[in-house]
Design a protein that fits this description.
The chain is α+β, with helices and mostly antiparallel strands. It contains 5 helices and 3 strands; from the N terminus they run αααββααβ. Helices cover about 50% and strands about 20% of the residues.
Length: about 100
Amino acid sequence: MRRRPAPREPRALGGVIGRVLEELGHGTRNPAMKLAACWESAVGPEIAAHAEPVDWRGATLEVAVDSPAWSQQLQLRREEILAALEEAMGPEAPTAVRLRIR
């Protein structure tokens, strides 16, 4: 009988994607890859645990959130989030955020 591996703590997908892309040699040349790599550090672990970027069209980033409460919280912090992304990504950062509940 095979033993199951011990469960590990969940990790933010953005950080994992960034590391995998880096290992494959893609780095963060593409703005979407750069966003995935910096999402958690830009918005903080609390927001990253409840919200994730799911689409990016033009200058608008679509973010899926866990609940209406988190949608409202991010709506109130929209400018702060955009400023943090601009600081992390430079001029390639999105300039608008659209929120949707998962």
